[in-house]
Write a structure and sequence with these properties.
DNA-binding; protein dimerization activity; nucleus; alpha+beta; SRF-like; transcription; single chain; two-stranded antiparallel sheet; flat; RNA polymerase II transcription regulatory region sequence-specific DNA binding; 1 helix; about 60 residues
Amino acid sequence: MGRGKVVLERIENKINRQVTFSKRRNGLLKKAYELSLLCDAEVALIIFSSHGKLFEFSSIE
């Protein structure tokens, strides 16, 4: 038995939304790093928070 489909919708609670954003942001940054390392790929990732704060990752130094 597999998992059912999850409906994605906006998180209304501001605190829960910010916590989820932080956790998912860190996960995305980690995946981008792993992709660049494992596949020797040039990866760039740009994330803007709901407050307009910039988070970035680049595999090129």
